[in-house]
Write a structure and sequence with these properties.
18% strand; Rossmann fold; 4-stranded parallel sheet; 2 domains; alpha/beta; 306 residues
Length: 306
């Protein structure tokens, strides 16, 4: 299992057969207190919150959200109060909180719950104003942490990888499109990026990604693709095939992927290599964006399957 800094060579038969050098960037190891792409998305948002004099962060997410977990942890580490507006019904008692929300509460996040009708309004300015009137002044982070200030932190990853290796393509899991948009900003039209979409019917994400890069760089880029065939039924859907793949990947490489994003990413990348998507002689870097906290909630729902 050769490791060069945060780059791990993945000795996979399908990659060798197609002449592709496949590497894994371990962004999940960069900051163990706040690992992965969530830390990158929050970096400049937290600076802006501090500069604007805010003492509270307010954000939105599902009951098993990596973003909720990350904002709560960031608040604890950097001295912000945090408020999480959670999609779904309020649990009857503390003891019934799932592991993600229990940890967020332990990190100091005040949890409040929105029914699905209200939650659908989460991006509406009027709705946000109502929440600020209810909870007081706060720096508002969108669901998933994707906004214009999220992109520069993700763009920095490109330079970090380039310091370690010359590559032809970067591959990343896609939920809201922010991390991919940040990578495209960092690539600035050079090399190729592949986004493996974790959502069903994720074709709309191209418009989201293009809007984000346009708003931050003034440009849209065509050096990327969205792979939409590896969602395994949709966001956070259960799949024996996917969980078996994750288990086998961990046995081969000693790396734990998560069932929401990075498991789908590596499955999609290896499948794409097998289909000849990457030219022979290419160096492809897949990015492990963290998310292992999701396993506790997954096991609570489905039992231990890894």
């Amino acid at each position: 299992m050769p490791v060069l800094s945060l780059l791990q060579l993945l000795d996979e038969p399908v990659a060798a057969a197609h002449g592709v050098r496949l590497l894994l960037w371990r962004d999940d190891l960069v900051n163990l207190d706040l690992p992965g792409n969530k830390a990158r998305k929050l970096k400049y948002n937290l600076l802006a919150a501090r500069q604007q004099g805010h003492q509270t962060l307010l954000t939105f997410g599902g009951a098993y959200s990596n973003h909720i977990a990350a904002v709560a942890a960031a608040g604890r580490l950097q001295g912000f109060r945090t408020i999480g507006l959670i999609r779904g019904d309020e649990p009857a008692a503390w003891a019934s909180l799932n592991p993600t929300l229990a940890q967020a509460a332990t990190d100091g996040m005040a949890l409040h719950y929105l029914d699905r009708t209200a939650y659908r309004r989460r991006a509406e300015p009027e709705f946000i104003a109502e929440q600020l009137a209810r909870f007081g002044p706060a720096y508002v982070l969108p669901e998933g942490g994707t906004n214009e200030l999220a992109l520069p932190g993700c763009a920095e990853l490109v330079a970090e990888i380039r310091q370690q290796v010359d590559f032809d393509a970067l591959a990343v899991a896609v939920g809201t499109g922010g991390t991919l948009a940040g990578l495209l900003s960092g690539l600035a039209g050079q090399q190729h990026a592949v986004g493996v979409v974790a959502l069903k019917n994720g074709g709309f994400l191209r418009a989201e990604v293009d809007a984000l890069t346009q708003s931050t760089t003034g440009l849209t880029f065509d050096n990327y693709s969205l792979q939409t065939d590896y969602h395994f039924g949709g966001y956070a859907k259960y799949s024996v095939e996917l969980l078996t793949f994750i288990q086998q990947f961990q046995a081969r490489h000693g790396v734990l992927l998560d069932p929401i994003y990075t498991g789908k990413l590596l499955f999609g990348v290896l499948n794409s290599i097998g289909k000849g998507y990457f030219r022979r002689g290419s160096t492809v870097v897949a990015i492990h964006t963290g998310g292992q906290q999701a396993w506790a909630g997954w096991q609570e729902r489905f039992g231990s399957r890894r």
